[in-house]
Specification:
Blueprint (H helix, E strand, L loop, with lengths): L9 H38 L2 E7 L3 E9 L5 E3 L3 H34 L18 H15 L1 H7 L3 E5 L5 H14 L4 E5 H10 L9 H9 L3 E5 L8 H16 L4 E5 L3 H8 L1 H8 L4 E5 L5 H6 L14
Parallel strand pairs: 4-7, 4-8, 5-6, 6-7
Antiparallel strand pairs: 1-2, 2-3
Helix pairs in contact: 2-5, 3-5, 6-7, 9-10
Bound molecules: zinc ion.
Length: 313
């Protein structure tokens, strides 16, 4: 839009207006040009990369690229071999740190699991399976440990029945050790200890409340309950075992029950329903129906914490 003056001095006014307009246009053009120049010089600075041969005291000659960045500072590339070595060393340190943290965690988990000292080093490798039945027991235990996450999702459990010294505690400890090595939590304790813990919480001056004790027994990913049915126990003791097993069943957390009773006797002690529940989702009952394993253990030097053979005079 342009004003046009009409009147006696219109010619003069119009020409003055034209001058002002032209001056304005020139100013705008100059401003734009200045900006263009700034833009060009900046991009020239960034793309003005220079390459030169440089000697690394360790790796010898390499091509160093450099370019000026803002405010006259110069960016130079380092020796690629030095950079690679630096990164590898950093990765190694990080890897070692992760391994250290993992092994600390496993140590803590195994420490917290309460596995009896004698059975701490027991594994599937040092379980002596000679007969078919022993090999089957080993296979089931190994499978349970190797696929523990799957059993954790179904809440399936194991029951080990059989005479003392047949290797039930060995295999249960091997499973608990393996579970801890997988970064999962396990707790190993006898029925006697579990019931004592609950009963202690009933005292007025108790450190832990009953609920907290049950939480401790129900929350680990795996609970190994040893000596189930050693003493048939009072009704109160039975109720405590049911409370633990039921709590774990509801939370779908696997258990391993170890008992010296025959399967039929255990079924009477715990009830058919409890046994069935434990076998749900792929669990099983293994009968360790062979002679005592202990004479072999005594002479087996490869076994950690093997009992010392009695001295023959
Ligand atoms: Zn270098």
């Amino acid at each position: 839009m342009r004003f046009v003056a009409i009147g006696p001095d219109s010619e003069k006014i119009n020409s003055m207006a034209e001058i002002v307009i032209q001056q304005g246009i020139r100013k705008v053009k100059n401003l734009a040009n200045e900006n263009m120049v700034n833009l060009k010089s900046t991009s020239l600075g960034l793309s003005g990369e220079v390459e030169q041969k440089v000697i690394c005291p360790t790796h010898g000659e390499y091509i160093q690229k450099s370019h000026e960045v803002l405010e006259g500072r110069v960016f130079k590339t380092n020796c690629p071999s030095c950079s690679k070595e630096k990164k590898e060393a950093k990765d190694k340190v990080e890897q070692l740190e992760q391994q250290r943290k993992k092994s600390e965690k496993i140590k803590r988990l195994i420490g917290d699991a309460g596995i009896p000292k004698r059975f701490l080093g027991r594994s599937f490798d040092n379980y002596r399976a000679e007969t078919n039945d022993q090999q089957k027991a080993l296979k089931v235990a190994n499978y349970f440990a190797a696929n523990f996450d799957q059993f954790l999702s179904t809440g399936a459990s194991l029951i080990f029945c059989g005479k003392p010294g047949t290797g039930k505690t060995h295999l249960a400890s091997a499973i608990a050790n393996s579970v801890c090595e997988q970064g999962r939590s396990a707790l190993f304790l006898s029925v006697l200890k579990a019931t004592r813990l609950v009963k202690e919480s009933w005292r007025k001056d108790a450190d832990a409340r009953e609920n907290d004790v049950y939480k401790t027994l129900i929350s680990p990913d795996l609970l190994v309950l040893d000596e189930v049915g050693v003493q048939f126990g009072s009704e109160a003791e039975k109720l405590i075992i049911f409370e633990i097993l039921n709590g774990r069943y509801e939370e779908m957390r696997p258990c391993i029950l170890i008992s010296n009773l025959l399967p039929s006797e255990l079924s009477i002690f715990l009830g058919e329903r409890v046994i069935d529940r434990m076998k749900e989702g792929g669990g099983s009952l293994i009968t360790f129906a062979w002679g005592s394993y202990r004479p072999n253990v005594i002479s087996d030097k490869a076994l950690p914490c093997a009992e010392v053979a009695p001295v023959v005079w």
